[in-house]
């Protein structure tokens, strides 16, 4: 026989598990915004769990704060079934989620339109990712207003125009990834204004051009990728024995500088300079960079002996050196 107290406890337990109780674990204003977003996505089947009769903290693509139940993460990634992918543009309504810390749109090829200005209202945003979409237009300067932003990942889209100088005003930025777009124009002097520790900067496969500013050599970053652009001139300012640099890719540009006068940090693990107009000799100091795991200076104007000793002639094969002006010694043929 159940006692009266047991029956009451049982009833309370069932109540806590009921849809009504669960729906209370969702801030009503956030829920209203999410249902508006679903409407803007034409009630996509990808959002089938977004049932107005259930708590939004249990919906797919969402993470809530454990105590306040405010929406912290909104992360859309295309599922394996193509027909369920989101179609449309970034809803302006996302700007009405004031406690949002992470916003992601990934692998959504039917996603178009520009980046809405309402994103500037997300003052708590730390991570903004828009990748592998057909989002187009310029990178908006208002992104510089997101003072808590640590990651800005806008790679593999259709973005055009210059990189706005306002991005250098992001005080907490640690990763700036703008690869594989149609960005054009110069890198501005403002890129030397990033606060320490400087962010990783990946700008490969765009249409950026001109010389790099001297200020870029004043920041101490770990990863820099400027490959597959139209840069010209002297890039030696990016090197330095006291820097933290680990990864540097300048390949497939028109850089021209004397490689023999460059100093290298001991932390360097990857250096790719292929397809440029770099001249001079390969510095002997490179033989002492023990962590160098990838090295390529092919298709340049280098001359002289490849320094022996260390790993330059044993770790890297002929393809790291060929098509230069007059390089010789192992792994290339001996000097005459």
UniProtKB/TrEMBL annotation:
- Kindly give the InterPro entries that the UniProt entry links to this protein: Leu-rich_rpt, LRR_dom_sf, LRR_N_plant-typ, PGIP
Report the principal subcellular site: membrane
Q: How does it sit in the membrane?
A: Peripheral membrane protein
- Which Pfam families does the protein's record reference? LRR_8, LRRNT_2
Which keywords annotate this record?
A: Cell wall, Disulfide bond, Leucine-rich repeat, Membrane, Plant defense, Repeat, Secreted, Signal
* Domain Leucine-rich repeat-containing N-terminal plant-type: start-end pairs: 27-64
Extent of the signal sequence: 1-23
Which segments cross the bilayer? none
Q: Which family does it belong to?
A: Belongs to the polygalacturonase-inhibiting protein family.
Q: From the Swiss-Prot or TrEMBL record, give the protein name.
A: Leucine-rich repeat-containing N-terminal plant-type domain-containing protein
Q: Which organism does this record belong to?
A: Trifolium subterraneum
């Amino acid at each position: 026989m159940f006692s009266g107290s047991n029956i009451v406890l049982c009833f309370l337990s069932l109540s806590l598990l009921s849809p009504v109780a669960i729906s209370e674990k969702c801030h009503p204003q956030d829920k209203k915004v999410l249902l508006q977003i679903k409407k803007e996505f034409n009630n996509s089947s990808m959002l089938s769990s977004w049932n107005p009769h259930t708590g939004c903290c249990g919906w797919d693509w969402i993470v809530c704060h454990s105590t306040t139940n405010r929406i912290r993460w909104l992360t859309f990634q295309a599922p394996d079934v193509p027909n369920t992918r989101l179609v449309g543009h970034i809803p302006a309504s996302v700007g009405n989620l004031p406690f949002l810390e992470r916003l992601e749109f990934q692998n959504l090829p039917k996603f178009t339109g520009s980046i809405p200005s309402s994103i500037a209202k997300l003052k708590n945003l730390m991570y903004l990712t828009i990748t592998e979409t057909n989002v187009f237009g310029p990178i908006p300067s208002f992104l510089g207003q997101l003072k808590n932003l640590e990651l800005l990942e806008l790679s593999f889209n259709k973005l055009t125009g210059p990189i706005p100088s306002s991005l250098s005003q992001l005080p907490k930025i640690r990763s700036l990834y703008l690869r594989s777009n149609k960005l054009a124009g110069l890198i501005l002097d403002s890129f030397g204004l990033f606060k320490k520790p400087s962010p990783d900067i990946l700008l490969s496969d765009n249409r950026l051009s001109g010389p790099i500013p001297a200020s870029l050599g004043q920041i101490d970053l770990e990863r820099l990728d400027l490959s597959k652009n139209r840069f010209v001139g002297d890039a030696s300012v990016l090197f330095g024995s006291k820097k933290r640099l680990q990864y540097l890719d300048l390949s497939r540009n028109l850089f021209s500088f004397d490689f023999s006068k460059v100093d290298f940090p001991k932390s360097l693990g990857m250096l790719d300079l292929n397809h440029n107009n770099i001249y001079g000799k390969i510095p002997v100091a490179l033989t002492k960079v023990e962590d160098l795991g990838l090295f390529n200076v092919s298709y340049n104007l280098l001359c002289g002996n490849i320094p022996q000793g260390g790993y330059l002639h044993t770790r890297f094969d002929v393809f790291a050196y060929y098509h230069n002006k007059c390089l010789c010694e192992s792994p290339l043929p001996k000097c005459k």
